[in-house]
């Protein structure tokens, strides 16, 4: 970096005006504090460009002066990709780029700027009579730019795919200020490399996504939702195969969770009542979309078959939207409630669906050897192989002593994941949290290719330096 902080702040102010720059340390706090509070490095300033031309000018200036920039949207990332690493960076928050540019429900797409909050995107689609099926726990604050940059997944990947699969085209500002005009609504385009797919999931290391055209779908007439008792993840897998065979693409969610997590939510008052049918070591939350013109009861019929065959022993089907909301709350609050119980070590991993039971069994055995008394709480998107393998501290343990064993617990879980052909990051990304881990587990040729792409698009290394690579 060639400029001192006062010169950077002066330069930013000249470009963006006083309303577009935050330099006071206290005023920057909310931009620096990420959800897990693991990273606490200051920034030189926060820049808030009002439009795409302003962001282009900022990138040209930063490239000329070698000023590192951190792309940030809703600041909901869980691996530190959106907050400072070295302390000499400028956070560039795109929240002011918040227009819904177009909604075309009939054609099945809409175009959103990066600062649009995900929940607002849902409302814009629904107002036009369509569905944008990307649902994550932080949708009330996560913004489209970050959702795409992290290739977010969520609870409906099973039916609709992750952020990359839902994206038709993107517009992005590159490191030197050039504008990539890749917005389109094409489902087929074989004119060379798919640059959209390169930018989506790059965690802001290759460019600022400023807008995207995303897919829309018909709104279902209703959802059929059930919370199903299963004795173990192996039976849950058999149930998944059965439900997928009976309901096909209408099966939009298949979430696994254990009784421990439900009990914690009841203990701390996060649930108004127990949403389950009866006590069980494990549960599956399954949901099926009922489209217009289709007969109701597809999920009920499949469950009756599973009950009749002895595959499952009990289940409760939501009879109202309030029931459905409570069931989903029990799933969505799984991670949050663990922090109330004490220290928690978290993992976002994926394996082929067929070996999810092996992941949970072998992973549990491995961490119990490393930390006797640890309380595993694996849960998540069993239908797409993505499990959040979280670990709560032993009862009465010292939280700091427990967290001091985090690297040992990580090594135990990741050994199982990799042996089963899985990934150490399913939907949260790499950021700064898993950067060193990526070097250990990624194919060396793949890393070389990634570094070559980074060098070509960001030769001065100013975009999110130290993240991912």
The CATH topology of the largest domain is Uridine Diphospho-n-acetylenolpyruvylglucosamine Reductase, domain 3
Which structural category fits the helices and strands? alpha+beta
Strand order of the largest sheet: 5-6-10-8-9
Give the % helix: 25-40%
Q: What's the number of structural domains?
A: 4
* Largest beta-sheet details: 5 strands, antiparallel
Q: How would you state the average pLDDT, rounded?
A: 96
- Model regions low in confidence, pLDDT < 50 over at least 5 residues: none
Q: How big a fraction of the residues is strand?
A: 15-25%
Query: Can you name the CATH architecture of the largest domain?
Result: 2-Layer Sandwich
> Which of globular, elongated, flat, extended, rod-shaped describes the shape?
globular
Secondary structure tally: strands = 19
Radius of gyration: 23 Å
Q: What's the helix count?
A: 17
How many angstroms separate the termini? 19 Å
- CATH class division of the largest domain: Alpha Beta
